[in-house]
Design brief:
binds pseudouridine-5'-monophosphate, Indigoidine synthase fold, alpha/beta
């Protein structure tokens, strides 16, 4: 398999410096323009500031990219007809020379192929609400179990059935580790009331956990970081808007991979942009922590 490295990521890789993978479905589908570009800029700046190098993954004209230059980022943030590419879509995307943003599943896979073991995202996919009726479970979950990559997130997307998502992660043997918290963060909100068995106080301990996990050859792991207090929304308010957004999705018969982008868009509209501000802030915050973990692993290895 051929990977197309950006200049910056290739150089860091050659010199053995720490890299942090980023997903691009958040650019292509998750956030509206021009906020998606702002998110990319803030995440990359935070990673560089912490002493690591960003590597956004994407598929452009069927080629697998590790790290994007300004032109590639712009294309994913503004292009028309961009695909949402999960792991199972990769083969078709390559063969048909398609272009699109990679979700958590495909980004984990590409990061693993590139030898990058820390990845920052916003919220994970998981088990959707009403799963007994619509069997909608994100391929993010089996991908996390399979690929040896540490994923830093603010929990799973709040649109999901979080208790069932945690249960399935247990079944898959994927540890969910709170960062300075014993509770699963709620993506837009800091709290969910769902206890986590494991937590780490800082990036240094997180790095040691990543080392141990990878040495066991057990696949991936999740670090869940509460979203920044300044922009987080109360859980109850999120729930209220979600109920309405979910109802509308049913009425409009939105299904499959269109569900997540639809709900995220509805939440932005219903909160008059406050979930958008929260989303940008938590993406940057997660990127910073991921970079700190990557740097700590690097220092430890020397
Ligand atoms: N969370 C967000 N924005 C996003 C996503 C998650 O705040 O755009 C994307 C991620 O790329 C994640 C994907 O991997 O949604 C999950 O989609 P699905 O539920 O269709 O598997
Ligand atoms: Mn789905």
């Amino acid at each position: 398999m051929k990977l197309v490295w950006s200049k910056e990521a290739a150089k860091a890789n050659r010199q053995g410096r720490p890299l942090v993978a980023l997903e691009t479905s958040v650019l292509a589908q998750g956030l509206p323009h021009p906020h998606n570009l702002e998110a990319a800029r803030r995440c990359e700046a935070a990673i560089r500031e912490a002493g690591a190098t960003p590597a956004a993954m994407a598929v452009i004209d069927g080629r697998l990219h590790v790290g994007l230059d300004a032109e590639g980022t712009e294309r994913l943030a503004t292009g028309a007809g961009l695909l949402k590419i999960g792991s199972r879509d990769l083969a078709v995307a390559i063969a048909t020379k398609a272009t699109g943003g990679t979700t958590v599943s495909a980004t984990c896979e590409l990061a693993a192929h590139a030898g990058i073991s820390v990845f920052a995202t916003g919220g994970l996919g998981g088990v959707h609400r009403g799963v007994a009726h619509d069997l909608d479970i994100s391929q993010d979950l089996p991908a996390l179990a399979r690929w040896p990559v540490a994923v830093v997130c603010a929990g799973a997307k709040s649109v999901l059935d979080l208790p069932k998502t945690l249960e399935l992660l247990e079944t898959l043997g994927v540890p969910v580790i709170g960062v300075a918290t014993n509770e699963l963060p709620g993506f837009y909100s800091r709290e969910t009331g769902l206890p986590l068995e494991h937590s780490v106080p800082n990036a240094k301990v997180a790095a040691a956990v990543v080392d141990a996990r990878l040495s066991l050859g057990q696949g991936g792991l999740i670090f869940a970081v509460p979203p920044p207090e300044a922009t987080a929304l109360p859980r109850a308010e999120i729930e209220r808007h979600l109920e309405a957004a979910l109802k509308l999705a049913r009425v409009r018969r939105v299904s499959g991979k269109a569900v997540t982008p639809f709900l995220l868009g509805e939440m932005v509209r219903r909160t008059k942009g406050r979930t958008l501000a929260a989303n940008l802030a938590l993406l940057e915050n997660n990127a910073r922590f991921a970079a700190q973990v990557a740097v700590a692993r690097h220092q430890h290895a020397r």
